[in-house]
Specification:
Layout lengths: L4 E12 L11 H11 L12 E7 L7 E12 L1
Antiparallel strand pairs: 1-3, 2-3
């Protein structure tokens, strides 16, 4: 059997391929605050638990631009 994970999106923004947000941070709260400070969306949710970061290319090919989306685990089924 496989588990399903439901995440709530709390941050999304454009950055570049060398962003510090690709580094695993030992300080959970600091990482969340950094994600929130760059975000172009506003959505208040519980970010104390497990997080997921999704990344995709943005802009024209070879630009090094990326779109990052951060989510917080809501429930596991």
């Amino acid at each position: 059997s496989s588990d399903l994970y439901q995440y709530e999106i709390f941050s999304a923004y454009n950055t570049d391929k060398n962003s510090d947000m690709y580094q695993i941070s030992s300080d959970h709260d600091e990482y969340v605050e950094s994600a929130l400070s760059q975000s172009v969306i506003t959505h208040d949710c519980d970010t104390d638990g497990r997080l997921i970061t999704l990344s995709t290319c943005a802009g024209f090919a070879g630009s090094g631009n990326r779109l990052l989306v951060h989510g917080s685990l809501v429930e596991t089924y």
